[in-house]
Amino acid sequence: MKQDHYDVAIIGSGMGGMCAAALLAHEGYRVLVVEKLPQLGGRCTTIEYKGFKIPHVCQEHPINGPAAGVFKEVGAEFDVVPQPPIFYRIKGKDYQAPEKGQFGFLLSKCCQDEAEFTRVRTAVRRATSWLEPSNSISFRDWLLQYTNNELVLGLFQNIVGSLIYSPLNEISAKDIMWFYTGGMRWWSLAGRARLGNIALMESLAKVIRGRGSEIWTRCLAKRILTEDGVVKGIVVDKQGDEIEITARAVVSNAGPKETVRLAGEEKMDKGYVKELKEKLHIASQMLIAFVSDRPLIEYPGGLGMVGARRVVNISCYTLTCPELSPPGKYLHTAQCQPRSEFTTLNRLKEIEAALEDLREHVPGFDEYAEVLNVSCFFNPGWPAAYNLPGYYPPERTPIENLYNVGDGVGPYTATGTGGCALTARTVLEDIKKRIKPGTITAVVI
């Protein structure tokens, strides 16, 4: 078997894996990233089809968030176009919320009267500034103490579905308030990757390779090697060649459950494995890409849908990033939230419910739109996120020097690419305390 040696081996080239690799390479570690797919990015990549560059799961990036901070630190280009203000459709009318007081403005448009507005607004204020709600009550049930107005519930569902990928009845009130006071601040200024998500990943790849580290695509991680509870490396299939990579640390961006499978469940602490099985649950989403010869949504920042069946927002990417479409064509996306994360989803029913929303709310959809791609992120191996809020396993695993990064271990108040970047930074700091850069040269046997 061929052998090679690195300071750190990283499984998966999603945002968590690539941020970890860039940070480690920037600190002088010799890193190898292995990616089973032909291109980088994982769920933060781009589908290129018929000349269009379609976002894959990740649609927007906080411009001042943790991921942007990693790009700046390592010297990678963060080519993100600021997103114009979002409009919201409430009871058939479209509103642009003011830059300050956006939530209060939108809430006022959903409430039936001033008394209801005051009840809900006061409850949220107290939950964020005085005493947070219990973790034992869902956010929907917590909110029902102050209103049963489905439009108000729909407003919160739009925000939660867009950023946390969860129905209101399946996420705790405490988790929502932690996010509201924490990670929500990143999204006050967000943007879209001008040349697609893949360009951002290639920017990090340029930094990684420029510092003497490597990235192998079409390279499947088959096993994580351990000895006496300490990680020793990985075995990979590189286009038919089986190679043993010895490494002093291994970082997995494949999700905590897949990390356990690769290392061997029998080698893990039983309590850790039990917690993952019982508490870790994927988040599901659906993204519909459709194109036309004219913009079917007039707002460059997009349209948030309050009270729709499945669609939480609709965007016309070409209005802000014309490079993503062929000349004279317009790329739109619709982000959709299933009604439950804990039941088996019927793909056809979910798609049809979303299409009904689009027919109802997008003028000329049947006449002018061509559905280019429907991505259903319902699969445990390829979800919208590897974990729902409420349970966050640590980046460290029971095997010494084996770590997880990404949204499967995203910290409280963090979501999306920002949370992935935070996990990468946590792992970097831990590795720096335990392992110094510098390895023996590659050996082939």
Features:
20 strands, single chain, disordered C terminus, FAD/NAD(P)-binding domain, 3 domains, eight-stranded mixed beta sheet, seven-stranded mixed beta sheet, 445 residues, Polyamine Oxidase, Chain A, domain 2, 13 helices, alpha+beta
CATH architecture of the largest domain: 3-Layer(bba) Sandwich
Anisotropy-based shape: globular
The main sheet comes to:
8 strands, mixed
**Roughly how many Å is the radius of gyration?**
22 Å
Please summarize what this structure is:
With 445 residues, this protein is α+β, with helices and mostly antiparallel strands.
Task: Explain this structure.
- With 445 residues, the chain is an alpha+beta fold.
- The protein has 3 domains: 2-45 and 61-79 and 195-280 and 388-434, FAD/NAD(P)-binding domain; 101-188, no CATH class; 282-383, Polyamine Oxidase, Chain A, domain 2, CATH 3.90.660.
- It has 13 helices and 20 strands.
- The protein has helices at residues 15-26, 66-74, 102-110, 114-129, 139-143, 150-163, 173-181, 197-210, 256-263, 270-279, 347-361, 365-368, 416-434, and strands at residues 2-11, 31-34, 44-49, 52-57, 61-62, 80-82, 87-90, 93-96, 190-193, 214-216, 219-227, 230-238, 241-252, 285-292, 303-305, 311-316, 330-336, 370-379, 382-383, 402-404.
- An 8-stranded mixed β-sheet has the order 8-7-15-16-17-14-18-19.
- Strand 11 (219-227) and strand 12 (230-238) form a beta hairpin.
- Helix 1 runs parallel beside helix 2 (66-74) and helix 1 (15-26) runs parallel beside helix 13 (416-434).
- It starts with a strand and ends in an 11-residue tail after the last helix.
- Residues 440-445 have low confidence and may be disordered.
